[in-house]
Structures are given as structure tokens and as C-alpha cells.
Amino acid sequence: MDEVEQKIRELTLDQGANQQQIKEWEAQMGELGRQIEKHRMSESRQGQVQRRIAATEDAIARLKQVQEGLGQLFRVQLEKRVQEIFSQISFTPYVPKLNEKYELTLEETMAGQPASVAASTGENQILSLSFIGAIIDRIREWSKGKSGILMPDSSTFPIVMDSPFGSLDEIYRRQVARAIPVLANQLVVLVTKTQWRGEVAEEMADCVGHQYVLTYNSPKPDCQVDAIALGGKQYPLVRLSPNKFEYTEIIEVERA
């Protein structure tokens, strides 16, 4: 009986140890189960992320295709408009070409083949003017298509041109003076007294909304004064400064 009771005690102890071991294993199984579920969720998220990445890359590729197509279409339309404006101003048979880098060149047809032309200073100026006018025209057309959106009309932005007639002869001066007022809704032209004369004044007279004279006040006591006659009235261009300071005044020309 002592031996049996001793055996029972040993078995009871073993049973408690086994139960404790079972509890530990169950806890480990629960932790492993949670880790497995976590990995499954992570794999699911990774799969979702991969699908999103694939969709994004596909969207980027499609947008690039659309961008390239629109860019090509815009360049072709811009080149055509540059050619139209250039032909209106220039009396040469040269044709402007716009490459993929938006670099402007002139070409002429010789023996049925296009050949590059070295543009003169005046032709380069007309070429640049044609490019600016074509850009403004394309923006104006784009703005019309966006009329339903509450945004400022880009075509109302002004063009400011400093001495656009400086390197042009009489014929080109007249052609440019006739062409630039229609390039934008607002045009600001800065010219010298010698540039604003004859054919330029004649062609742009009906387009002038406001006219101003920039009067330079020189601190030099021996400065050479200068003036310009506009609307039957003399306006100073250079005069001796009344306070010995150097500055420029903007004087509006009185309209007749």
C-alpha cells in the first residue's frame, strides 16, 4: 500500500507538471496563431499595396502617353501658328520650323528639298515675335476651353516689349507695328523717340489706349536736354534735375 500510495503521489505530481506544460503549449499555440494571422494580414496588405503600385504605374504610363500626345499636338499647332504670323510679317519665302526641343529655325525649299537658312538679326527678331504671338494665341484658345472653371483668363496677361523696332528696317518696322497690337489683349511697348516715328506711329496710332513719356532727370549741370512732340505738345525726355537727384518720372500724354 505504501508503494502504491507513493506511486499515486508521483503520478499526481506528473499530472500537475503535464497540465502546466499543456497550458504553456496552449499559450504558445495561441501566440503562434496570432502571429500566423498577423502574417496573413500583412500578406494581404502587401498584396493590396502591390496592386495599388501596379495600378499607379499603369496610370503613370497612360498619363505619360497622353502628355506626349498632347505635347506633340501642341507643338504642331504652335509651329503652324508661328508660320502664319511669320508669313504675315516677313516678305521672305522662309518657313519657321519648331523641333521637339522647341528650338526655332528657318528653312527654305531648294530643288524640292528643305534647307536651313541663316537668319539675319531682323529675321531672328521677327521669328521671336512670331513665337511669342503663337504662344499667346494658343493660351487664348486654351482659356476659351476652360471657361467653365472659375479661374483668371490667361489671355488677359499683357505682353511687355522693350524696343521691338530697334534692328528693323522701314518695311519690317511697319509690318511689326501692324502685327504686334493683335498678339495679346494688352500690349505694353517701350520705345525710343527715334523708334516711335513715321510708320510705327501711323500703324499703332489707332491701337494706343494710354501713352506715357519717361522723363529722365539728370543731376549733371551740363546734361543735354531732349524732348518729344506728341499730340501737338512738347514732353521732356531728358532735363536737368530740379533737386540734383537722379530719377525718372512717368508723365501721361494728354489725348487730343
Brief description of this entry?
Helix content is 51%, strand content 20%.
**Can you summarize the main beta sheet?**
4 strands, mixed
Q: What value does the average pLDDT take?
A: 85
Strand order of the largest sheet: 7-8-6-9
Low-confidence residue ranges? none
What does this structure look like?
The protein is an alpha/beta fold and 256 residues long. It contains 4 helices and 9 strands, in the order αβββαβαβαββββ. It has helices spanning 2-89, 121-145, 170-179, 198-204; strands spanning 95-98, 104-110, 113-117, 159-162, 187-190, 212-218, 226-230, 233-240, 247-252. The strands form 3 sheets. Strands 7-8-6-9 form a 4-stranded mixed sheet, with no helix packed on it. A hairpin with a 2-residue loop joins strand 2 and strand 3. Helix 3 (170-179) packs parallel to helix 4 (198-204). The longest helix is centred in the first third of the chain and has 88 residues, at 2-89. The termini are far apart. The model has no long low-confidence stretch (mean pLDDT 85).
